[in-house]
Design a protein that fits this description.
There is one protein chain. The chain is of the alpha/beta class. Helices cover about 40% and strands about 10% of the residues. Helix 4 crosses helix 5 and helix 5 crosses helix 8. The radius of gyration is 23 Å and the shape is globular. About 45% of the residues are buried.
């Protein structure tokens, strides 16, 4: 299906699976995910975009994860494990969301015991085959996860030196000492991939493409950095000398200090970018198209001394993105979308255009200057993806209500709307765009205000937990999506 994605005009919805309703702690890959696919098909839409699916840290950010390959076990449908007989049914008791998520992870680990006792020979062989096929990342990640538990979740650079530095004898002994925990984690990944690929097959059969997201950088406290220190700019103790971020911009007056370690591009190139190839091959298995977050970082990275507490005192440092794509693209079938927001130079545009990666257009950004604003629909490009807003923006209704009266009047005149017609008039503007693909956040389809936004950049509390309810989705909203899809040739 990959070659079909940009063969015609399409429309889709941005919704992270954790935002699906009515399950333990967060949404998962169970019946509500399948119902969401049915909703897309019924609405004349053909793309489901989501955030990264990797295992997050306690803050739940899908952009700061413990592995760039592993799946988030919070998404595992535990009811399916009960149906297999590997888990006894659980009576769900009232509990805080954090406790519910812990319970979900405990249930996935417990299911491994049932699997050992009751799985068929065919299922056991499938597990072994999965572990062999994914060994290039799974063995390191499962050991990393076991050591994190052993060290009570301490960051890997605070472990004993023999574990911190992956000394061969210590690593070999740890694989023996924590063998059961390692198998539990490998089993969890086996189940996640099984459930995800089953959902993908169902979606593809209904004509729905799955649109993934890949952060350009990886978290410092991750199996990626722990097991591959030579690919990152670190000191002898494993700490970064410089970190990633962006300078002051629309989202933050002091910029964003993400804290991710920066790549050692010389080492990556010496290995023919094999680390990146494996990462993109995993994405190719899971998705029909991938957005690479912060595409600007493939031309130059905002490089911040690790001692700085904000992103203000950084500098742009050139990197080898062109060599990376020249090497890898002939080996991949996965279409790539470039997140090209923020400070974009002619060099970044030239890099994106060389490989014909679609860029992004955000309608909420379209009204703060003049007719040359690149986010206004008459300036859109065919090879682009248009959004009302993204997971980092306010909902469109919240954004509109936050504008002063003069700006509200200007926006309403531009989209030819009355106040009660927002956000649907902006949604229609996206459908009308020349851009091949339009993506609408689920919050905008439901007409929700600022209290329902997914993330507020620069903050760490209260993000990534939003969920919708099926009762919020009305028949007239489905009808309107179907009408817009057909009228603007996106069905």
């Amino acid at each position: 299906m990959q070659t079909e994605l940009f063969s015609k005009r399409r429309a889709g919805v941005l919704l992270h699976p954790t935002s699906l309703p009515e399950t333990l702690g967060n949404g998962d890959l169970g019946k509500h995910a399948y119902r969401f696919v049915d909703f897309l098909a019924e609405s004349g839409l053909s793309v489901w975009q989501m955030l990264p699916l990797n295992p997050p840290h306690d803050e739940l950010s899908p952009y700061q994860c413990q592995s760039s390959h592993a799946g988030n076990l919070l998404l595992v449908d535990v009811s399916a494990l009960e149906q297999k007989g590997w888990l006894a049914p659980l009576e769900v008791m009232p509990a805080a969301l954090g406790e519910q998520r812990c319970q979900r992870l405990q249930r996935v680990a417990l299911a491994y015991q049932g699997f050992k006792q009751l799985a068929s020979l065919e299922e056991q062989q499938e597990f072994k085959d999965f572990c062999a096929a994914q060994a290039h990342w799974l063995e390191d990640y499962a050991l990393f996860h076991a050591l994190k538990r052993h060290y009570q979740q301490a960051a890997w650079w605070n472990w004993l030196p023999e574990h911190r530095d992956c000394q061969p004898q210590a690593v070999q002994q740890a694989r023996l000492d924590f063998a059961e925990m390692i198998l539990e984690q490998q089993f969890g990944q086996f189940i996640f991939f099984q459930q995800w690929l089953a959902l993908k097959a169902y979606a593809n059969a209904k004509g729905i493409f799955l649109f993934g997201d890949m952060p350009i950088f990886v978290a410092e406290d991750s199996a990626d950095v722990w097991a591959n220190r030579h690919y990152f700019l670190l000191d002898p103790q494993g700490r970064p000398q410089v970190v990633a971020g962006v300078p002051p911009d629309y989202f933050s007056a002091t910029g964003q200090r993400w804290g991710n370690p920066l790549y050692n591009w010389h080492e990556l190139r010496e290995d023919k970018f094999s680390w990146w190839l494996q990462r993109l091959k995993t994405a190719e298995l899971l998705f029909d198209v991938i957005r690479i977050d912060h595409f600007r970082g493939f031309e130059a990275c905002w490089t911040i001394p690790a001692s700085e507490q904000t992103a203000e005192r950084g500098e742009w440092v050139k990197v080898e993105g062109e060599a990376l794509f020249d090497t890898l693209l002939p080996q991949l079938r996965l279409p790539v979308v470039a997140e090209d927001l923020g400070v974009i130079t002619p060099e970044v545009n030239a890099l994106r255009n060389k490989y014909q990666f679609p860029g992004m257009k955000i309608l909420q950004f379209a009204f703060d200057s003049d007719a040359t604003n690149p986010y206004l629909p008459h300036n859109h490009e065919l090879n682009s993806v248009v959004y009302t807003g993204t997971h980092d923006n306010d909902t469109t209704l919240g954004w509109f209500k936050s504008l002063n009266p003069t700006m509200q009047e200007y926006v309403l005149k531009a989209v030819q709307a009355e106040p009660h017609q927002m956000p649907w008039k902006l949604i229609e503007m996206g459908f009308a765009s020349v851009a091949k693909l339009v993506i609408i956040p689920m919050q905008d389809i439901l007409g929700l205000d600022s209290s329902h936004r997914m993330n507020k950049p620069g903050t760490v509390q209260g993000n990534w937990e939003w969920r919708f309810s099926w009762s919020q989705l009305l028949p007239e909203q489905i009808h309107q999506l179907r009408y817009l899809s057909k009228f603007y040739g996106r069905d």
